[in-house]
Design a protein that fits this description.
Distance between the termini: 40 Å
Helix content: over 70%
Number of strands: 0
Largest sheet: none
Order of helices and strands: HHHHHHHHHHHHHHHHHH
Structural class: mainly alpha
Length: about 700
C-alpha cells in the first residue's frame, strides 16, 4: 500500500508542475491595451476583495465546527479515545484549507487569463481558445492534484478511512458556502445588470456605462471559478472517501483500497494527456474541441485502468466494469445536457422561437424542457447504481456497495478535464466583456461570443456531470453511513441495520423531511439573489439619475458600490442556507434515530438530484436561447424575442449558477454530517 501512497504524491507533483508550466505560459503573453488592463485589474481586485471577506467569515465558521468535532465527533471525547476526535478535527481543517486554496489559485489564474484571452480574440479563434482553455486547465490540475494528495496523506498518516470523513466534510462545507456565496454574488450582479441595462435601457451586455458591469464580471470568477472549483474538489474527495470507508470494511480490503488509489492516479494522468491534446482549428468549433478532449481523456482512462486491472494482483474486473460504467453514464449525462442546452441543437431554437410570442412562453417552454432533461440523467444514475451493485455483489459481502462507490470514482476519474472545461467558461465570458468594454470592435466581440457560447454549453455539461457524480457518491456515502452506524450499534449491543424500510414510520418521517430540505435550501438562495438584486437595481437607477453624463458615456460609473452591495448581500445570505441543511440533519437524527436518518438521506438525494438537474439545465437552456437570438436569429438584439429571452435568462441565472449546482454539494454535506454523527444518533435519540 505504501507504494500507492508514493505514486499518489508523485502524480500530484506532476500535476502541480504541469499547472505551473501552463500558468507561466499564460503569464508570458503581455497585455498591450491599457484600457483592457485597467478593467481587468478592477475585476481582479473585486474578486479578491470578495474572496478575502468570504474566507474570513468561513474561517471563523470552520474553527467553530472544528471545536465541535473535537468535543463530540465521532464520539464524545470524554467517553472514548480522544485521538480520533483530534485527528478528525485536524482533517476537517485540512479539507477546508485545501478547498479554499484551490479557489484562491483559480481566481488568480482566471483573472490573469481573461484580458489576455480578449486580446488574442483580435487575432482569431484559435489563439484565444488555447489561452482560455490553458488558463482553466491550471484550476483543473490543481484541484485534482490537491484532492489526491490530501486523501493519500490523511490515510497514510492515520490509517483510518473514517478519519477521511472529517477531511471530506471540511471540503464539502467550504464548497457549500463558497458555491452559495459566489452564486448569490454573481447572479445578483448579472440579474441587476440585465434588467436595467438590457431590458430598460437597451444597452449591450457589457456596456461600460452600466454600473453593475464590473460586478457581473467579478461574479463569473467568484461563482464559476472559486465556487465550482471547491464544489468539484469536494465531489472528488467525497467519492474517494466513500469508496475507501467501504473498502476498509471488506475482506481483501487492501486490494480494494489499492484500486481506489490506482484509478484516481490513472484518472489524473489521463486528464493531463487530454489537456495536452486540446486544440481548435482556425475556423474550428470550440465546443467540439472541448468535447473531443473529454473523449480522449475517457478513452485513455479506460485503457490504463484495464491494463492495471489485468496486471495487478487482487484487482477485480467486476470493479473495473462498475468504474467504466460510471464514467460512461457520466458522459451520457453530459451529452444529454449538451442536447438540451447547446444553441446548435433544436431545443434551444424552440425556446428562442417561443420567445417571439412573449416572456410567458419563454418561461413555460424552458421550464418544460428543463424537467424533461432531468429524466435521462436520473435514469442513468439509477441504472449505473443498480448494475454496479449487481455486478459486484458476487465478489463477496459488502462489495455491492463498493461497486457503486467505484462507479462514482469512475465518473469523477476525469474530473481534471471536467474542471478545465468549466473554468474555461468564466475566462472567455470575462474576455467577451473586456472586448466590449475595451472597444476592441465587432469582429473581436463576435469571436469572443463564439468562445463564450461554447463555455456556456460546457458549463452546463459540467454541472450535469458533477450532479450525476454527486448522486452516485451520496448513494455510496449512504453505505458508509450504514457501516459507521452498525459499528456503533455493535458496540452498544443493539440490533444492526440491514436497510431502510419506508413502511417503518421512523424511516418515512426522515424521508419526507429530507425531500423538503433541497427545496427550502434552493428557495433561500434564490431569495437571497432576489433581495440583493433589488438593492443593486436601486443603486444602478440612483447612479443614472445622479451622475451627470453617465448615460451618454461622458462620466464613469461607481463600479465599487455595486461590488460592495453584491459582496455584503452574498455574505449575509450564505450562512443561513447552509445551516438549514446541517442543523436539520442533526435534529432528525437526535429526534428519530439512525433509521430516520437513512430515510432523510434517501429523500434528500432523490429530491435534490431532480431539482439540481432541472435548475441547472433550464438555466443553461434560457441563457443559450438568449445568445442564439443575439446571433441575429428570431429578430436579433433589441427584438421582442430578445427582450423575452433576457427575462428567461434572468430567471435562469440563479437556477443554473446559484441554487442548482449548490444542491449537489448540499446532499454531500448532509451525508457526511450523518456519517460523522452516526455513533451519536445510535446512542442518543428520543424515538430511535
Amino acid at each position: 500500500m505504501f507504494v500507492f501512497y508514493i505514486v499518489s504524491f508523485l502524480t500530484a507533483a506532476v500535476a502541480f508542475l504541469f499547472a505551473l508550466y501552463l500558468y507561466l505560459w499564460v503569464k508570458k503573453h503581455k497585455i498591450e491595451n491599457k484600457e483592457i488592463e485597467r478593467i481587468s485589474l478592477l475585476i481582479k481586485d473585486g474578486a479578491n476583495t470578495f474572496l478575502k471577506r468570504e474566507y474570513k467569515l468561513l474561517a471563523a465558521f470552520a474553527i467553530a465546527v472544528a471545536v465541535l468535532i473535537l468535543i463530540v465527533f465521532p464520539h464524545p471525547i470524554w467517553k472514548s479515545n480522544p485521538a480520533d476526535n483530534v485527528l478528525t478535527a485536524i482533517a476537517y481543517l485540512a479539507g477546508t484549507a485545501l478547498s479554499a486554496l484551490a479557489g484562491k489559485i483559480g481566481i488568480l489564474v482566471a483573472t490573469l487569463s481573461n484580458a489576455r484571452c480578449a486580446e488574442k480574440a483580435q487575432k482569431g479563434l484559435k489563439d484565444a481558445f488555447l489561452l482560455g482553455f490553458r488558463g482553466g486547465s491550471v484550476m483543473g490540475l490543481l484541484v485534482v492534484g490537491c484532492s489526491l494528495f490530501g486523501v493519500a496523506f490523511v490515510l497514510m498518516i492515520t490509517g483510518k478511512a473514517s478519519i477521511l470523513l472529517g477531511f471530506s466534510f471540511g471540503a464539502s462545507s467550504l464548497a457549500l458556502f463558497a458555491k452559495a456565496g459566489g452564486g448569490i454574488f454573481t447572479k445578483t450582479a448579472d440579474v441587476a445588470a440585465d434588467l436595467t441595462g438590457k431590458v430598460e435601457l437597451g444597452m449591450a451586455e457589457d456596456d461600460p456605462r452600466n454600473p453593475a458591469v464590473i460586478a457581473d464580471n467579478v461574479g463569473d470568477n467568484v461563482g464559476d471559478v472559486a465556487g465550482m472549483g471547491a464544489d468539484l474538489f469536494d465531489s472528488n474527495v467525497a467519492a474517494m472517501t466513500s469508496a475507501l470507508v467501504i473498502a476498509q470494511s471488506l475482506s481483501g480490503s487492501l486490494a480494494a483500497t489499492e484500486m481506489v488509489f490506482a484509478y484516481s492516479i490513472l484518472g489524473l494522468i489521463a486528464s493531463i494527456i487530454g489537456i495536452m491534446t486540446a486544440r481548435v482549428g482556425k475556423d474550428g468549433n470550440p465546443t467540439r474541441a472541448l468535447n473531443s478532449s473529454t473523449y480522449v481523456t475517457t478513452a485513455i482512462f479506460l485503457i490504463l485502468t484495464a491494463v492495471s486491472t489485468a496486471l495487478l494482483e487482487g484487482f477485480s474486473w467486476r470493479i473495473w466494469l462498475s468504474s467504466a460504467l460510471g464514467l460512461i453514464v457520466g458522459l451520457i449525462i453530459g451529452l444529454t445536457t449538451d442536447y438540451f442546452t447547446d444553441d446548435t441543437k433544436p431545443i434551444v431554437k424552440k425556446v428562442a422561437k417561443a420567445s417571439s410570442s412573449g416572456p410567458a412562453f419563454t418561461i413555460l417552454s424552458g421550464t418544460s424542457y428543463g424537467f424533461i432533461s432531468s429524466a435521462p440523467a436520473m435514469i442513468g444514475i439509477a441504472i449505473s447504481s443498480l448494475v454496479s451493485y449487481k455486478i459486484c455483489e458476487p465478489i463477496g459481502e459488502g462489495y455491492a456497495l463498493f461497486g457503486i462507490a467505484m462507479a462514482a470514482v469512475g465518473m469523477l476519474s476525469i474530473v481534471g478535464m471536467i474542471i478545465s472545461n468549466d473554468a474555461y467558461g468564466p475566462i472567455v465570458d470575462n474576455a467577451r466583456g473586456l472586448a466590449e468594454m475595451g472597444g476592441l470592435g465587432e469582429e473581436t466581440i463576435k469571436v469572443a461570443d463564439e468562445l463564450d457560447s461554447a463555455g456556456n454549453t460546457v458549463k452546463a455539461v459540467t454541472k450535469g456531470f458533477s450532479i450525476g457524480a454527486a448522486g452516485l457518491t451520496v448513494i455510496s456515502l449512504l453505505g458508509a453511513f450504514m457501516s459507521e452506524t452498525n459499528s456503533a450499534l455493535r458496540e452498544l449491543g443493539k440490533d444492526l441495520i440491514n436497510g431502510f424500510d419506508i413502511m417503518d414510520p421512523s424511516v418515512f418521517f426522515g424521508l419526507l423531511i429530507g425531500a423538503a430540505i433541497p427545496a427550502v435550501f434552493s428557495a433561500m438562495l434564490i431569495l437571497g439573489v432576489d433581495k440583493n438584486a433589488e438593492r443593486m437595481v436601486a443603486e444602478i437607477h440612483r447612479q443614472f439619475n445622479t451622475i451627470k453624463g453617465l448615460k451618454e458615456g461622458k462620466a464613469e460609473a461607481d463600479y465599487g458600490k455595486c461590488i460592495d452591495i453584491a459582496t455584503k448581500g452574498a455574505l449575509k445570505e450564505l450562512i443561513p442556507a447552509g445551516l438549514v441543511a446541517i442543523v436539520s440533519t442533526l435534529l432528525v437524527g437526535f429526534i428519530a434515530g439512525s433509521k430516520a436518518i437513512g430515510g432523510f438521506l434517501v429523500g434528500n438525494i432523490v429530491s435534490g438530484l431532480l431539482l439540481a438537474l432541472f435548475m441547472s439545465n433550464s438555466g443553461g437552456l434560457w441563457d443559450n436561447s438568449k445568445k442564439y437570438i443575439e446571433a441575429d436569429h428570431e429578430g436579433g438584439k433589441g427584438s421582442d424575442a430578445h427582450k423575452s429571452a433576457v427575462i428567461g435568462d434572468t430567471v435562469g441565472d440563479p437556477y443554473k449558477d446559484t441554487a442548482g449546482p449548490s444542491i449537489n454539494t448540499q446532499i454531500t454535506v448532509v451525508s457526511l454530517v450523518a456519517s460523522l454523527a452516526s455513533s451519536l444518533f445510535a446512542a442518543f435519540s428520543i424515538f430511535g
